[in-house]
Amino acid sequence: MSKPRVAFFSFSSCEGCQLVVLTLEEQLLELVTLIDIASFREAMSEKSDDYDIAFVEGSITRTSEIERLRTIRERAKIVIALGACATIGGINCLKNQFEMEEVQNIVYGKMAEKFDTIPTRPIEAVIKVDHWIHGCPIDKDEFIEVTKALLLDKKPRIPAHPVCVECQMRENVCLFEKGMVCLGPVTRAGCKAICPTYNDGCVGCRGLIEDPNLSSHKNLLNEHGLTVDEAISQYMLFGGNSKEKYE
Ligand code: SF4
Ligand code: SF4
Ligand code: SF4
Questions:
Q1: pLDDT at res. 213
Q2: Pocket test for ligand 2, best of 170, 202, 221 (most atoms within 8 A of CB)
Q3: For a disulfide at 184, which of 118, 163, 221, 238, Cβ 3.0-4.6 Å?
Q4: Cα(94)–Cα(239) distance, rounded to whole angstroms?
Q5: Structural domains of the chain in order of their starting residue, each with its CATH number
């Protein structure tokens, strides 16, 4: 039986999620016995347009990226959004707070006219996506779990519960008790609550859970003398493409 052919692609991003895949080391060696890598620019120079599974990293921030993404969709049987830039638009959405012309001028100065830029969007805004691996960057274990499920022809399971569940399992002191803002109650788990564990509030890089209890989160903020605006400003770091979902 032929092995599935897998390709990795990058759009507007720092390519840190692909780097996570490369740091899998021993697990990566095991993985390549089960798949054929068709393209992976960060790891090899050979490339092929013949692939079954496409991992797509990065958000769409230029019109020229739209056609390239559609072509990948046409060629792949399965498309997986890899990391926050691809799944929710991510940190690139910061530019959506400005007029595009202003962004062009700030970034490219006198060359502005030569570069096109559009409001940042996740890849799902352009093509159908089959599965999502969340986070900035992605979690290694979750990448392995999702890939294993795909190789076994099963639907990958992505956590539906909030970061607070993982945070409490780690017996962390809640950051609200320390007067800090945290988006853990409304953010999708799967990162082992890494930020609150190291005393940083969750800023929602894994996106909102389905049906988040926003009014309860806002009450929590109020109870601790924190404001909704403070939470929105944290949310906007990654969630600028879906500001209305938090408001
Ligand atoms: S999700 Fe984060 S780590 Fe991954 S490519 Fe985007 S900015 Fe880089
Ligand atoms: S620190 Fe954040 S993630 Fe942890 S329990 Fe408190 S609100 Fe939830
Ligand atoms: S705690 Fe929040 S911001 Fe930090 S990795 Fe997890 S989801 Fe992302």
A1: 93
A2: 202
A3: 163
A4: 8
A5: 5-151 (3.40.50.700), 163-246 (no CATH)
